[in-house]
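Quarterly update from the structural biology core.
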Amino acid sequence: MFYVYVIKNENDKLYYGYTNNLKKRFFNHNNGDNFSTKGHIWKLVYYEAYLSKEDALEREKQIKQFGQAWAQLRRRIKKSLNES
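Predicted structure, tokenized:
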């Protein structure tokens, strides 16, 4: 499986990523192993699972472009973003 995920830190900063091992990647974010997310405590607020690596990478690209795909996703997970 391949995953596209959204994590959020204590300052409400969001990070979007792709991985083939969600548990390990989430651990790495909170362990300071990733430069972009180092020094914060992160919560997983959303993920999507794909059988195809190409589909997951395309979805990550759509979300990171902050266009219609990101706006639609934010509407769908609005409560999750506010409650975490």
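The chain has a mean pLDDT of 90.
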